[in-house]
Each structure stands twice: as structure tokens, then as C-alpha cells.
Specification:
By secondary structure, the chain is α/β, with parallel strands linked by helices. It folds into 2 domains: 173 residues, Peroxisomal Thiolase, Chain A, domain 1; 150 residues, Peroxisomal Thiolase, Chain A, domain 1 (3-Layer(aba) Sandwich). It has 11 helices and 13 strands. Strands 1-7-6-4-5 form a 5-stranded mixed β-sheet, sandwiched between helices. It has a 4-stranded mixed β-sheet with strand order 8-13-12-11, sandwiched between helices. Strands 2-3 form a two-stranded antiparallel ribbon. The two termini are 16 Å apart. Bound molecules: acetyl coenzyme *A. The site of acetyl coenzyme *A has 23 residues, from helix 2, helix 6, helix 8 and strand 12.
């Protein structure tokens, strides 16, 4: 398969993880849970928690600074900023505008947020890919940043053990080499089931009131069991469809980098798409579920460990609130 030039590839990567670690033992002191339950049901051991004074844009700015240095370009070279987050600093101004200002980027460039929850990274790859191919842009800064600790109900053991904070930023650039970078992308959504994973209040449907605060309706809620099954099915299906679309067989895949929501979801997806678990990159034990950040954080770590080499086919897949899901196939440049 040939991708029409220009190709869009990853030119630089940066990750920022907060210092503070919240371990399963810490959670045992907070809610009625156990290290054994969390490990066996999710694969998680610890997650990072952002400092109270840091907002999502602070986390994203730190990751973005590293990505720009890693790309070997200057801030003036960035000509579009997209941020995927469900924990924006505020509804508006967008977190992308805030990061643009904090970084001191040019003002003749667009900056916007997009919401696709845990699928935010694969959604953003698709959007950036097409904007780069079709438009005048050369270097796009895509950022995932989440301070999920700010929307977690710390009294709800079924969700508070799952999530962590973090940020990752990538510089995507176009080049004239064929068949490198983003080879294909498949996205899906099903809004009819959105209530199974939601943040109930604070929007126009259910504005903030004393009652919503008292009922903790500004915190994330999830019907974990139902979400689990839909996540496995949709992630697996879109991986299979994407490989078919790109004319690539499962055994040609070098690495799969899945959204790190639950180790049992990863296990099930591996079986469904017939790619051995050894090819799956996993860091869930250290990060928990960092929503849109989980794939890029894991990708950066895998790359820095020297495991991803030029020419490798890397498959990404995610599922998140909305519902949203998707998969991206990359040939590493
Ligand atoms: N410690 C101890 N027991 C617990 C805990 C806990 N932290 N949480 C729940 N339990 C109990 C439940 O109360 C229940 O007890 P009961 O049988 O007495 O009623 C029992 O454990 C089983 O609960 P389930 O919800 O059925 O547990 P399950 O095996 O489904 O695991 C989990 C729960 C980890 C949430 C799983 O369902 C999951 O990972 N779901 C998908 C998450 C996901 O993919 N999210 C999408 C992305 S997130 C985003 O977009 C923001």
C-alpha cells in the first residue's frame, strides 16, 4: 500500500508526569479496596497525581516544551495547536489557547480543544493528519493533558482507583517520503450510550447548583462492567477493519499501543485481533488510566527504551467516553 505524499509523521515527542505517586496502598487508606483487587481487576499499581496548583494547561505546556525541543524546531515553527482533554482548565478559554499563550507561540495560528475522552489521541491524529495534508500547515502540535484527579469522586471505589494525571505532546510534520508516518485511521462514535460513562453536571443541561455539588455530579461516573464489554468489541473491530483497509496482516504489526484502561481489556483485545500479548506495549501499572494521554505516554516510553525502530508498523487503539473509539496505523520514520 502507498500513502499519497505528503506523508505525516511524528517529528518530536514530550511527556510530563507529575511527581506525586498514589499507590494502591494509599487507596486502601481512602476507600474500601485492596491492592490485590486493583492489581487483579485492572493491572494498576500506582498512578500520578498533579500538584493542586497545576492545571491541565500547565501539564500540557511542560510536555509541549519537551516535544518542540525533541522535534528540533523552534516555537515559531508551530502553526497549529490541538489539545485533547476532558479536564480543560475551564470550559473557555480553551486549554489550547492557554497553552499557546504559556508557550509564547505565534498568534497567527489556530488553537482549539477537542473532546473524545480516552480516544482523544487517535481522534486528534486523524484531524491533524488531514489538516496537514490538505492545508498550509507544516508543524502541528498535538497535546493530550489530563488532570483526572480533579473530576474523580474520591469516595467512589469503583472509579477512584482507576485514573491518573499526565500529559504528552507530539509534533506532527509533513514530508515527501511515501508510506511513512500515519498510514491510516478509523474512528467511530455512539452517543446513544454516552450516559454509561459521563460527567453529569456543570454543562447547559445540568448547570452547577448547590445540589449538583452536594450530589458529586461534577465527578466522573461509569458503569464499568458494561463499558468493559463495549470497549473490547469496538477496539477489536476497528483494529481488524483498519488492518484490512491498509492491507496489512496482524503478523506484520511490530507493536500495538492500546489505551491503558484495564489490563483485562488489553488481554481480550489481543485475543480478538490475534496479535500476541508480547507485542502490546503496557505501562498501566505505573500510570493508571490517563485518558487521552495513555497512548502517547506509552508510545514515548517505548520509543525511548529503543524498542520502536524506523520501518516498524505500530498500531494504536482506544476507547472512551462518548462513546468514541478508533485505531491508527503508523509506519515509524
Ligand atoms: N475495590 C474492591 N472492590 C471493588 C472495587 C474496588 N476498587 N470497585 C468495585 N468493586 C466491587 C464491586 O462493588 C462489585 O462488588 P459486588 O459484586 O459485591 O457488587 C465487584 O467489585 C465487581 O464489580 P465490577 O464493576 O463488576 O468489576 P469489574 O470486574 O467489571 O471491574 C472495572 C471494574 C475495573 C471498572 C472494569 O469494569 C473496567 O475496567 N471497565 C472499563 C473501563 C474503561 O474501559 N473505561 C473507558 C475509558 S475511561 C474514559 O473514557 C474516561
Amino acid at each position: 500500500m502507498r500513502t499519497p505524499t505528503p506523508s505525516v509523521y511524528i517529528r518530536g515527542m514530550g511527556v510530563y508526569m507529575p511527581e506525586r505517586r498514589l499507590t494502591n496502598a494509599d487507596l486502601e487508606r481512602l476507600v474500601e479496596t485492596s491492592d490485590e483487587w486493583i492489581r487483579t481487576r485492572t493491572g494498576m499499581v500506582e498512578r500520578r497525581i498533579a500538584a493542586p496548583e497545576d492545571s491541565t494547561s500547565d501539564l500540557g505546556t511542560r510536555a509541549a516544551e519537551k516535544a518542540i525541543v525533541d522535534a528540533g524546531i523552534s516555537k515559531e515553527d508551530i502553526d497549529l495547536v490541538i489539545v485533547a482533554t476532558v479536564t480543560a482548565d475551564q470550559t473557555f478559554p480553551s486549554t489550547a489557547c492557554k497553552i499557546q499563550a504559556k508557550l509564547g507561540l505565534r498568534t497567527d495560528i489556530p488553537a482549539f480543544d477537542m473532546i473524545a475522552a480516552c480516544s482523544g489521541f487517535v481522534y486528534m491524529m486523524q484531524v491533524a493528519n488531514h489538516m496537514l495534508r490538505a492545508g498550509d500547515y507544516k508543524n502541528v502540535l498535538i497535546i493530550t493533558a489530563e488532570k483526572l484527579s480533579s473530576i474523580v469522586n474520591w469516595e467512589d471505589r469503583s472509579t477512584c482507583v482507576l485514573f491518573g494525571d499526565g500529559a504528552a505532546a507530539f509534533v506532527l510534520t509533513k514530508c515527501n517520503e511515501p508510506y511513512v508516518g500515519i498510514l491510516g485511521n478509523i474512528l467511530g462514535a455512539d452517543g446513544s450510550q454516552g450516559d454509561l460513562l459521563t460527567l453529569p453536571a456543570g454543562g447547559s443541561m445540568n448547570p452547577a447548583s448547590y445540589e449538583t455539588v452536594r450530589n458529586k455530579e461534577h465527578c466522573l461516573t461509569m458503569a464499568g462492567n458494561q463499558v468493559f464489554k463495549i470497549a473490547v468489541r469496538t477496539m477489536s473491530e476497528c483494529c481488524v477493519r483498519l488492518l484490512e483497509k491498509c492491507n496489512v496482516t496482524a503478523d506484520q504489526i511490530k507493536w500495538v499501543i492500546p489505551h491503558q484502561a484495564n489490563m483485562r481489556i488489553v488481554d481480550a483485545v489481543a485475543r480478538q485481533i490475534k496479535v500476541p500479548l508480547e507485542k502490546f506495549c503496557i505501562n498501566i501499572e505505573k500510570t493508571g488510566n490517563t485518558s487521552a494521554c495513555s497512548i502517547p505516554i506509552c508510545m514515548e516510553e517505548t520509543y525511548r527504551a529503543g524498542k520502536i525502530q524506523p520501518g516498524d508498523l505500530v498500531l494504536l487503539t482506544a476507547f472512551g467516553g462518548g462513546f468514541t473509539w478508533g485505531a491508527t496505523l503508523i509506519r515509524w520514520k
